[in-house]
Every structure is written in structure tokens, then in C-alpha cells.
Amino acid sequence: MKIVDVTSEIVETIWTCEEKGSCTIDYVKKEHEDGDGYIVDDEILSELERSGLVEIRGPMISLTAEGKAKARPIIRRHRLAERLLTDVLGMTFEDMEEAACEYEHTLAPGLTEAICTLLGHPRDCPHGSPIPEGECCQRAENSVTSFVKSLDAWDIGDVIRISFIRKTDPILIGKLISMGVAPGKEVKIRQKFPAYVIQIEQTQIAIEQDIAAGIYGLKV
Length: 220
Ligand SMILES: [Zn+2]
Ligand SMILES: [Zn+2]
Known about the structure:
The protein has 9 helices and 8 strands. Helices cover 45% and strands 17% of the residues. Residues 116-117, 121, 134, 136-137 line the site of one zinc ion.
């Protein structure tokens, strides 16, 4: 058995389409052509129009304010999940999509905010599409409390607890972890130029700037 919230799927498609321009009914139908287990046809689209979520004009379809309000949190959860899956869990683009689609329906609001904060309130998904802002992002902008940032954004002398290492070269990540640069560990920033020098207990490690930019943590 499979239960699909067809309304959510459709408003999500129109949102994504409208980011690139305007959207046609044909496009929406085509996107869901092989929708396994559910049907997107004129009947369901008229129903959405009657319920005030979309507006249909000739071949064009667009989201109303109400439709946007419905799509926005879904898009936000989907794109945050993509960031989480690629950046933190190291999933490939190909494997990520199905999992992200699951998350978009199941992530609780509190958890969504926690993930957004963990990731440092990212602006874009891994595909480069904008992530709609949440309340947590606005709060972060207006407050001085620190959140997760990459090592190169912190200052000399700061002690940072590592939250995650953005997926880069797996060999490099393995090397970092073997030196103790791993999630949960604390590092002190000793120098930022000409090389980054970080210290873990009594060990100092010099790393290139692009590596520092891929290590994220919170000031302790
Ligand atoms: Zn994306
Ligand atoms: Zn946020």
C-alpha cells in the first residue's frame, strides 16, 4: 500500500517550475506521468483550483498565495534534507532524491529547525535551488548567538566542537578523522594565515583553506 498526498506533490512541482519562470498544465502532467500509484489529470487540477490553491488560465497554471503557503514548508524540508544527506551523511546525488522525498513529508517542524540550525541555516540546496527561510533563520540573523559555521569563519583562539565535515574527498575525510578531526571533537584555531593551523589536545595540524572551509562546528 502506498499513500500519496497528491496535492503536496502538485504544489511542489508548480513551485519548482515557477522558480524558473511560468508553469503550464502540460508540464505538471508530464512531471507526474510515471507517478507510480497516483494520477495527475485535469480532474485533480480543477479540484485544486476549486480549493483555492492554484489558478488556471488557458494552458497556464500558477500557485495562489494559499498554494504557495502550502508548498513552501514542503520545499524547505525537501531541500534541507538534501543538504543533510549530502553534506553530513555523504550520500551521492543519485541516492539522495528518494530519501529527500520521504523526509519532505515526515520531518516534524521542530526537527526541521534543528537540522537547519545544525547546517548553519543554508541558503541553497545541493542543486543550487533556494531553501525557503524558516523562523530559525530569521532568529539567527537577528541574534548574536553563534551557530554552526565552517572553521575558516571562526577566529584565532576559538575552540570549536566539530559538527560535521562537508563531504569532499573520502580519503581526505578518512585522514582527518584518523587525526582526530571528527564530529564531536574539539579543535582550537591557532593560525589562519598563511596556512590554517588547528590544535587538538597537544597536536597541531596545518590544513589548506578549502579543507578548513569544509569543516563545520560550533563555538564552545
Ligand atoms: Zn535540490
Ligand atoms: Zn534556519
